[in-house]
Amino acid sequence: MSSTSNRIHVPDRKVAEGVYRFGTRRINWYILEGDEEVTIIDAGLPAHWPQLVAWLDENGYELDDVAALVLTHADVDHVGFAKTLASQNVSVYCHPDDLPLLRSHPQSPPRWYLRNLWRPRFFAYVLEMFRDGVRSVEPLADVDLLSEGDVLSVPGEPRVIFAPGHTPGSCVLFVEDREILFCGDVLATRDIFTQKEGDPQLLGAADEDPEEAEASLARLEGLGSVTLLPGHGNPWYGDIDTALALAR
Ligand SMILES: [Zn+2]
């Protein structure tokens, strides 16, 4: 096993049919396979890049087989190697309401970061982000835009569900035929402040607009049985309405 695969601390990258989990135990991003090419969902931090290169190589893909990067939102820990992919002519998708954020990296830590640094496990997460290049995340100016209801013509053909609140342009990506829901930071299964794994939950103090974040959960109602794949924490398997009830 390579050191990069050790770092994720999960037994297997495969979390659903044709879906693989990367990053570290604190931050997730995913590969979604289509028929011949792949879509990357979120871009972690710059130091995660070798994980992508190694996986493509081990699985018979070339960098050219990466058809798109879709960002659930433009927080720095989800934009990591986006610029590197963009420079390889990979299309990057983001909701227009997160473009100001996407164009602002690297930026000073937000106030809620500073207020929570006294928490030892949050501090450890911040140290990890520095180690993995959070200060070298590059801004992106020109990207393809996501909007509510789009079914993206990228591998896996995810449908966009606009769910603002964590950030103004947060989106959830639903792969209906495989019942996979990439929820970004709309829901997490790991508390970023205590770093404890748990049930689906809102991010609370890390949400830009907590009220709007909670209201957006209604947009996910009735999607049925899903594999919920968050930006932070382990996969959760079950009925989305149960996940929403737990989060509320
Ligand atoms: Zn995040």
Automatic annotation (TrEMBL):
Gene3D superfamilies: Ribonuclease Z/Hydroxyacylglutathione hydrolase-like (3.60.15.10). It holds the Pfam family Lactamase_B. CDD domains: yflN-like_MBL-fold. InterPro entries: Metallo-B-lactamas, NDM-1-like, RibonucZ/Hydroxyglut_hydro. Transmembrane segments: none annotated. Residues 26-232 form the Metallo-beta-lactamase domain. This is Glyoxylase, beta-lactamase superfamily II. It comes from Halogeometricum rufum. The lineage of its organism: Archaea, Methanobacteriati, Methanobacteriota, Stenosarchaea group, Halobacteria.
